[in-house]
Amino acid sequence: MPPETMPHQTLSEKSFLEDTAKALKDPQLRRNFKRAMSGLVAKRRNVFPNASEFEGLREQASAVRRKTLSRLPELLELLEFNCERNGIRVHWAETTEEANRIVLDIANEAEVRLAVKGKSMVSEEMGLNAFLEEHGIEAIESDLGEYIIQVDKELPSHIIMPAIHKNLEEISKLFQEKVDSNSTSETAEEMTATARKILRKKFHDADMGLSGVNFAVAETGTLCLVENEGNGRFCTTLPKIHVALMGIEKVVESLQDLPPLLTTLTGSATGQPITTYFNMISGPRREGEKDGPHEVHLVLLDNGRSKMYEDELLRETLLCIRCGACMNHCPVYTRIGGHAYNTVYPGPIGKILTPQIKGIENAGYLANASSLCGACVEVCPVQIPITEILLRLRHNWTHQNKKRHWTDKNRLELLIWNGWKQVFSKPGLYRIQAGLLGRLGNLLPKQTPILSRWARFRSLPRFSKKSLHRLVEEEGIDHE
Residue 79 contacts by C-beta under 8 Å, 6 or more apart in sequence? Predict the structure, then answer.
């Protein structure tokens, strides 16, 4: 029996705050993420032990991506020309609805009833599984992590490791309840064997294979796919039709551009110097070849990317190579997990990508879920200025909210900031405030409405009895 499709997700600031609070109160989830994130951070550190060498590699990867973006329209046309010349049929989709319809038309023309899917964030963005199922086509995930969350009707909680929020015991219980009731799978090897038994038959029976695209080479018309499990290769060779789904930003100019991108991608994503499989697809099966699909289709999805491209700062979002390193180092994501965001793209990259895809009025609140510590910027292999983009989106979100409704909460916030401005712009007022906080700040009751919310998950700061100016004066240091 195929896994049930995950129910439709609705973006909401209220649900985000509720889900965040729920995640923070879930000790098992916190333990799962602490263990997983610590391991990923350590692996990445081990694969890039020399900081100066890694900075050089980041410079190369960033330069490649920026060069691509500077010529994006031209390179996309070149990619289309060379793909078509190689026998790959290229389809353009401005929206996810259009992309879904293109895939459905391809499937209906070939009377497809079963499709196997390799890992593809673009397909998640499209909601493709649910769409195909609504039209009588089973679409089953073949990546083990994606298969696990499909069985449990969940969104991916991480763009590289979608089931990272679950531990071994939870996955074992899920397999026994929803995959094979006769299974006593308890180890990772046993559960993998159970999934392999089911998926191998699906690979054999499927008429269509779906995949993502990590990079597409414009000069050669080549689709590059990086993976570790071999399921991607099954999806692109066994079924008679292969449909590759790609965001328009994933194009590169030449094969020479790939090495720095692949090195930073695999090292940043999973702490590997290289992945198990690197597939280069340049067309359908040719005469005399023993495997490969009879048809290859490439669906190029825009979905708001062209709008990002128009803005000099926001277009930097399109540099992303989907490694997930920003999530692994983010103090917000590592504490609340991916599902609190209720979006396909969680974590720092999701906070800048989702508001631009879904609209600032619908998802702009996500930009506020950041400490602006800059950890994501430090580890990003292509040097995306995530904090700068977050600040821009916060400004846009605030402006949008003021236009839509001016509430008492807005007025109170404005009053507080105006008071802060007055105090910090007048030395006399600042000294009076500092003196009062030094004497009375630590006596404030923790159960006030504002402090109680803050103190639920944080330690309250202790105010010094003496201000910094006073300490400097007592030391006899000239600070004028």
Answer: 90, 216, 217, 218, 221, 251
Residue 93's SS3 state is strand
Secondary structure of residue 155 in the 3-state scheme: coil
- Measured between alpha carbons, how far is residue 359 from residues 304, 308, 312, 458 in Å? 9, 11, 18, 32
CA 427 from centroid of its chain's CA atoms: 45
Write the pLDDT tens digit of every residue in 92-126: 999 999 999 999 999 999 999 999 999 999 999 99
Pairing of strands 277-281, 222-227: antiparallel
Beta strands in 371-428 (DSSP E): none
Please state, in angstroms and rounded to a whole number, the distance separating the CA atoms of residues 418 and 71.
45
Q: How many whole angstroms from its chain centre is CA 454?
A: 28
Q: What is the DSSP string of 166-228?
A: --HHHHHHHIIIII-TT----SHHHHHHHHHHHHHHHHHH-SEEEE--SEEETTTTEEEEEES
Q: Check residue 7 and give its pLDDT.
A: 46
The CATH T-level fold of domain 27-306 is Rossmann fold (3.40.50)
Measured at the alpha carbon of residue 410, what is the angle toward residues 408 and 411, in degrees to the nearest 5? 65
Q: Is 478 exposed, middle or buried (0-12, 13-18, 19+ CB in 10 A)?
A: exposed
Q: What percent of the chain has pLDDT over 70?
A: 93
Among 21, 29, 61, smallest CA distance to 380 is for: 61
For residue 233, what pLDDT is reported? 93
| DSSP assignments along 156-167, one per residue | -SSSS-TTTT--
In this structure, the chain runs to a length of 480
Which helix (H) or strand (E) segment holds residue 277: the answer is strand 277-281
| Domain-wise residue ranges, the chain | 27-306, 317-404, 411-474
Task: Give me the pLDDT at residue 436, please.
Answer: 83
- φ, ψ of residue 88 in degrees (nearest 5): -90, 125
Q: Which residues contact 440 (CB under 8 A, 6 or more apart)?
A: none
- 375-422 confidence digits (pLDDT tens): 999 999 999 999 999 999 999 998 887 655 555 566 777 788 888 898
Do residues 225 and 232 touch, judged by C-beta distance below 8 A? Answer: yes
Q: State the chain's mean pLDDT as an integer.
A: 90
User: What six digits make up the tokens of 466?
Assistant: 């003496």
| pTM of this structure | 0.86
Q: For the purposes of burial, counting CB atoms within 10 Å of the CB of 337, is it exposed (0-12), middle (13-18) or buried (19 or more)?
A: buried
